[in-house]
Specification:
Elements (H helix, E strand, L loop, with lengths): L1 H28 L3 H22 L3 H29 L12 H9 L1 H8 L4
Helix pairs in contact: 1-2, 1-4, 2-3, 3-4
Length: about 120
């Protein structure tokens, strides 16, 4: 079980780095400041949970879960926007798949990770 915890820590470190990178690029380009700020907050939750997750503490799983839930909410918001845009209403700045929609499938590994380590 310790190997799964260590592998999960490295996996969520990669996801945290990706969220932070895309969040800061959105912030610096001033293209979508709100989404960039939200992605930086998601990355903060991921980073906050990495050390307790490495130590196999429940607090680490809680922080990673909160970061994933926030990422899912961002993706759901963007999917709603894509649905409205498909009805013929044009929303400026929304031209396709956004970063939260692309990162959300990678955060779904959380379910497997939590079930394998016995935290249910």
């Amino acid at each position: 079980m310790a190997i799964i915890s260590k592998a999960g820590t490295f996996y969520f470190l990669a996801l945290a780095l990706a969220s932070a990178y895309f969040g800061f690029t959105e912030l610096l380009s001033l293209k979508n400041v709100f989404e960039g700020l939200c992605l930086v907050i998601v990355a903060g939750f991921y980073f906050k949970g990495l050390i307790p997750l490495w130590k196999r503490e429940m607090k680490g799983v809680a922080f990673i879960t909160m970061g994933s839930v926030l990422l899912w909410l961002l993706a759901f918001n963007d999917l709603i926007g894509l649905g409205i845009e498909s009805l013929g209403v044009h929303i400026p700045g929304l031209n396709g798949l956004t970063i939260p929609i692309l990162l959300t499938p990678f955060s779904l590994l959380l379910f497997f990770f939590v079930k394998q380590d016995g935290w249910r």
